[in-house]
Write a structure and sequence with these properties.
The chain has 202 residues and is α/β, with parallel strands linked by helices. It has two domains: 55 residues, no CATH class; 130 residues, Ribonuclease H-like superfamily/Ribonuclease H (Nucleotidyltransferase, domain 5, 2-Layer Sandwich), CATH 3.30.420. Helices cover 49% and strands 22% of the residues. It contains seven helices and five strands. It has a five-stranded mixed β-sheet. A hairpin with a 4-residue loop joins strand 1 and strand 2. Helix 4 runs parallel beside helix 6. The radius of gyration is 19 Å and the shape is globular. It starts with a helix and ends with a helix. The relative contact order is 0.15. The mean pLDDT is 87.
Length: 202
């Protein structure tokens, strides 16, 4: 009897791990196409709730809201093949300990690389606000975007100006913000998400 119970627990743990992996890593594009009333955030929350219920067994309470984080690191990036060309935005939210909280990607259609860079940052900032983040450290390999947001460069492009204003507004909603320009090799996870967004039309 004990062996059966142990086997059942191991099977349940695997199912929980699979659900959480799908919620964190999969683009979920086919499911979102089949159920247009859902968005990626709602779908990922549903998978997390299913994992929590499975983990807790019958009668487990469903969490009312995702956990709030005091501080997160936000890695953002954008890609455009052709510049302008098929473009994607990517963002990865990480706890200070290094634990990945969420990975995001969004296909942008035909856009420039600078447009995609701003959209990647906006994607991550909006998700951070949903998670109740108070302090955010932004890491991006776009020197232009970081210097514009820091006030060192002017924004001359009309198409970027709108995104710039929206981004500043979001940044002002956080209690503390740090903007950092990093080399591309330190931003690989966000770069991967922006390219996946193009490849998979996320």
């Amino acid at each position: 009897m004990q062996k059966k119970d142990d086997k059942a627990l191991k099977g349940k743990a695997l199912q929980v791990a699979v659900l959480r992996f799908i919620a964190r890593e999969e683009p979920l594009g086919a499911t979102l196409s089949a159920f247009p009333q859902l968005d990626r955030v709602k779908l990922r929350r549903a998978l997390e709730r299913a994992a929590n219920l499975l983990e807790g067994g019958p009668g487990a309470e469903e969490p009312e809201a995702p956990p709030a984080y005091l501080r997160l690191r936000l890695y953002s990036d954008g890609a455009a093949r052709g510049n302008p060309g098929p473009a994607g935005a990517g963002a990865v939210l990480v706890e200070p300990s290094g634990q990945v909280v969420d990975k995001l990607g969004k296909f942008l259609g035909h856009q420039t690389n600078n447009y995609a860079e701003y959209m990647g940052l906006l994607l991550g900032l909006k998700r951070a606000r949903e998670l109740g983040v108070s302090e955010v450290e932004v890491f991006a390999d776009s020197e232009l975007m970081i210097r514009q947001l820091s006030g060192r460069y002017q924004v001359k492009s009309p198409s970027l100006r709108t995104l710039y204003v929206e981004t500043l507004g979001l940044l002002n909603e956080f209690e503390r913000v740090k903007l950092m320009h990093v080399p591309r090799e330190m931003n690989r996870a966000a770069d991967e998400m922006s390219n996946r967004a193009i490849d998979e039309r996320m």
